[in-house]
Design a protein that fits this description.
- The chain is 78% helix and 0% strand.
- The protein is an all-alpha fold.
- The protein has 2 domains: 30 residues; 169 residues, no CATH class.
- The protein is globular and about 65 Å long.
- The N and C termini lie far apart (46 Å).
């Protein structure tokens, strides 16, 4: 049986490789807490890639594709996307956003940098990595928090109206489309400085 024929089989194989690499590197670099930090960072980055990847898919692929489908008279229309693709993509999208935020906050907390980050380095402690790190990672953390709010409070509730998951009038659906689009575009805009801050914090500079 070829595990690569299924999505979950592929993921399980990848996790087995991760476990093997983690075990071997932990033997070489047996620093206290290194493995836990590595797992947390991996979770944060993997969930973040899923979240932002789907955000970009919605903004750069699906919205334009639906527009083209609606403009194509006699074409297949966008029913397949709205019925089968969008709900599943939104499922991964919203939960990946939550896992990204929680794993990031957990990493900052266990490394004594949660308060340092959310106060933008103005309350750095002796155990934290300092005010420069707090400022840089904090900008990313706050942007990520705003983006998480947009996902769960603005995008998801309005997408349920758009996709017919909850009852809504034509006027409510029209309003929902505008709010969801603006929140999604806002997140796309904020993702650029957010990613720059996250990467920059671990490389000693903002960009």
């Amino acid at each position: 049986m070829n595990p690569l024929k299924s999505a979950w089989g592929t993921i399980i194989c990848g996790l087995i490789i991760i476990a093997a690499i983690g075990y071997l590197t932990d033997l070489v670099y047996p620093a206290k807490g290194a493995m836990a930090n590595a797992v947390t960072i991996w979770t944060h980055v993997t969930a973040g890639i899923t979240w932002i990847g789907l955000l970009y898919y919605f903004n750069f692929v699906q919205v334009q594709a639906l527009g083209d489908a609606l403009a194509d008279e006699g074409g297949p229309g966008g029913g397949g996307i709205t019925k089968y693709v969008a709900p599943r993509a939104l499922l991964w999208f919203r939960w990946a956003a939550l896992v990204t935020w929680l794993s990031g906050a957990f990493y900052l907390m266990v490394n004594s940098n949660l308060i340092n980050a959310f106060t933008l380095g103005t309350n750095a402690s002796e155990k934290s990595l300092g005010s420069d790190y707090g400022m840089t990672i904090g900008i990313g953390a706050w942007l990520g928090t705003i983006m998480l709010f947009n996902v769960w409070i603005l995008i998801w509730p309005n997408q349920k109206k758009i996709l017919g998951m909850v009852e809504a009038t034509a006027e409510q659906i029209g309003r929902a489309k505008f709010v969801a689009l603006m929140a999604s575009r806002t997140n796309t805009m904020l993702s650029l400085p957010m990613l720059m801050s996250m990467v920059g914090a671990h490389h000693g500079y903002f960009m």
